[in-house]
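Students often ask why we bother encoding 3D structure as a string. The short answer is that it lets us treat folding as translation between two languages. Here is a chain of 610 residues written in the first language.
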Amino acid sequence: MPEYLDFVPQQRFQPTLALSPDGQLVAYSSHASGHYDLWVVPVTGGEPRRVAGFDDRTVRQIAWTPSGGRLVFTADENGDEQFRIYLVALDGSGLTEISSGPDCQRVLATSPFDPTGRFLAYTANDRDSAAQDLIVHDLESSELRRFTPPQGVAFEAVSISPNGRWLLATGFRSNTDIAIYLTDLSDPDATPICVTSALGEGLFEPGVWAADSSGFHLLTDHWSEFTAAAFYDLAAGSLQAIARPSWDVEVLDAAAGVRIWSVNEGGSSRLHADRDGSPISLPGIPPGVISALSLAPDASFAVVLINSAARPAEIAVLDLARHEFRYLTDTRPPALHVIDPVVPELITYPARDGRDVHALLYRPDGPGPHPVLLSIHGGPESQERPLYARSGLYQHLLHQGIAILAPNFAGSTGYGTAHQKLIYCDWGGIDLDDLDHAVKYLHTLDWTDPNRLAVMGASYGGFAALSCLARLPYPWAAGVSMCGPSNLLTLAKASPPTWKTFVATVLGDPDTRAEHLLARSPVTHADGINAPLFVLQGAHDPRVPQAESDQIVARLRERGVEVRYDIYPDEGHGFTNRANELTAYEAISAFLHTHLLAKTADRSASLHVG
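And here it is in the second language, the structure alphabet:
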């Protein structure tokens, strides 16, 4: 029988791709060497080449200089999210750190350079840890031009216009309240101006500029609770719709009169394109999820990062000229060459107030009854989608005979803004009720065994897993929490300073809602947890500090509850070290096997002998 490692992809990627200015090379971040390093591969195929990397840093964002001779990228140390900015030549020489000052959260603009390559745009909280400033860095003189945000707004640089005049940025308050700011760099006294203020609160995420700098593309929920693609005309100050589907547009790029965008239809990506406003046909792509897309300068092809339940994430080329799709990478693990992966069924189940909850249901081979893992996504403003999840862990569990139900409960993205906002300041409320209904749904299936039920999640999903174990009255067999908050009050107080407005909006202000946050915290209900628990935590986690896991582990061990606690001293919020990731998921697989399969087998054998 294949072991967990037989299901592990050959490599994984950070969700970023960058095409060289001449369209010949794709730059990306892969952990093929054990850490997420900077790599390039020819668009026509061939051997990838490592350009730069570190033993203790993760390459996150990547962009090319306008000449194509160098690349700029960000990297953080052991997952601490204190990003530094580096320049390196295409041949790997001349690696230089260009950021200065203390460790802080530096975020590159998506298109960070002006046309000359002299000025670089990014965001940093180096001046004030609670404020994210816009910065234009003169690479020749090392001078910084700085723009500070309004109170309660976190700036994020997006791009410099093709003519070098405009700095485009967002002003972030929450995931559903993002405004657009423009700064006229030709004016020495310029200040960022919010160009969407007259349109009201909502989601306005700017993207690629028109080639003549007359305006820029964006994604917005201005017209409905689903995200549309639009164009903002600078001269007219007007917003024009490009695509308004009944699902979210999630990725868009444009070049040479062609626009291409992806729509999240029930979790799967569907590509659309037009040329000068008229629809064009695209080559077929495998079912999956597109997390990054970049259109060639001449619009003859696009590169995508595509992931599916049946095949791990791959870099691929969508050739518009030849009307064909081809992979640039092959990350398939040994197991996928001998067995067919399980593809989930998209189902709905009834919840409170007449709502239906969408979920992915993975059914193993065989009649059952099968034990079930309730897998809860993070965020909570995220979405469970048909991916090759957790480096093959899903497929390994399924191959062992463990079913998986992965719901998109209240707060999940992809089903409209109203559904997403249901969780605001209600963590452990309506979401937990939806998870309760998920278990009730499992009881209606004749091929599942709800008496052999485990729950697992990471980040917010870890919080939800702990809440299920503590507050839902089911005979849980086991639980897994990866960097999961156990005390919402201490979590809110320890959040990064730049997140203050976000935390107050989405989680709750710790100064005014302390009692509510404590009431919804798993640590408050820890006496209700009796199932064996596996807790995993990164020591450098800036989002969910180690103290969150320490609290729940201490409370349970005081009561004699079985707890395994693995702390990774060189990780942050999740895994960036390949060896750590594989160790963790292999251990989780063994833990779930023990409590969902092995103990049951031992009990059945004992009963048979008796």
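Translate back mentally: Residues 601-610 have pLDDT under 50 and may be disordered. Keep this in mind for the problem set.
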